[in-house]
Amino acid sequence: MGEYLVRCLGCGRIHPPHALACENDDSLLRTEYASKRLALRGDLSGLWKFYDWLPVKEPLRGSGEKPVTYKSEGLARALDLEELYISFSGYWPERGAKMTTCSFKDLEAPPTVERMMEAEDARVLVVASAGNTARAFAQAASAVDLPLVLVVPASGIHRLWIDGDLPESVLVISVKGDYTEAIDLASRLEAHPRFVGEGGARNVARRDGMGVVVLDAALSMKSLPEHYFQAIGSGTGGISAWEASHRLLGDGRFGRRLPRLHLAQNSPCAPVYAAWTGSMLEAGRCPGGMYDDVLYNRKPPYAVKGGVREALEETGGEVYGITNQEAREAQKIFEESEDIDILPAAAVAVAALLRAARSGAVAKRDLTLLNITGGGISRAKEELKMNYLKCDIEVSPSAFRSESTSTSYSDLLAEIDEILGRRG
Ligand SMILES: *Cc1c(COP(=O)(O)O)cnc(C)c1O
């Protein structure tokens, strides 16, 4: 059970289970599970039911909810679609959705944190995030007291709440700059032997965790969908959906065709859209002005072997550039027809579906899966006791550019050590 190999998609070599990169080329690594048939683990809950296809030895204590898949009535009627299913990652207790951090980053963080624990890696995990990822990692790490350094742009601090007590093991660095500058500082920390990055799209635990969306949906739909809609920044979720679909083809009970990926970006901050359509990227002031800046990613894993381009090519996929106006309209239609609030990022996916339904790219009877990647925050805030994480260290990005040898960087390291040490 849970047996797997990690193979490089470029050179084909088998790698140690915790490898994030191949030493020969820059291709993604992928897991190959011994079990080829999807069997649910009835003794485990949430995400961990898919244990056989997750790269972990054990479930992580105290976290790991799964998305719920249901057949849409309201939105389906509004779009005149008959076979529309929704995968909902978020908080919606009436439907059984209990992710208290309210986004599908809750599928990535628990397996990643569990693997950190299993590897008995003494290094401190560093995560850079504009918000949803940070929240999910804070929740997962705090459940098991794993030391974690979150590097967040100042504008994202308000998104850092968790359900429950404020975690002692989590240290928050606020960067007075944008997400890109937060990533730069995190990369600099990751290069230090005391820290380790989570690897983003390169981490098989993140991808296989997100793959649960398609696994759960296929069980509900009794088939792979013909179309898969998702809002993307990096596109890691799209890669995950494609990989999970391949596994389901291998199972044999869920159809013989890969779903078409319909990936939605928020224009003009849409590098995957630009690369796919060959259009100009006008990302000058990005992520400023975005409908949801969690969808901004400067360096998506697009052209690498096993990356977004290959997933799109193999599935006959499409990328959409969605304007704020379209996203706003779609959010309204969704929330009125399905009766739950969604994150703005998810509305970008709804807008893509709206376009595809109107143009006929998705026909009335096509089996379609819409991934609502986050929602139910209003619902969660009514019911749960939310605690907001506080900023522990505030830094200005100019002091930490890679060429800088200023003492402020060593001061920062000392301060991190001091705080983590004090908290034990
Ligand atoms: C991160 C995120 C996305 C985009 O995910 P990818 O990694 O680009 O697939 C979409 N919606 C929400 C709510 C997110 O947090």
From TrEMBL:
NCBIfam families to which the protein is assigned, alphabetical: cysteate_syn
Keywords: Coenzyme M biosynthesis, Pyridoxal phosphate, Transferase
SUPFAM superfamilies documented for this protein: Tryptophan synthase beta subunit-like PLP-dependent enzymes
Organism whose genome encodes this protein: Candidatus Methanocrinis alkalitolerans
UniProt feature coiled coil, ranges: none
Pfam families in the record: PALP
InterPro entries xref list: Cysteate_synthase (IPR022401), TrpB-like_PALP (IPR001926), TrpB-like_PALP_sf (IPR036052)
Transmembrane segments: none
Keyword Transferase set for record: yes
EC number, as in UniProt: 2.5.1.76
Identification of the protein by name: Cysteate synthase
Residues annotated as domain Tryptophan synthase beta chain-like PALP: 100-374
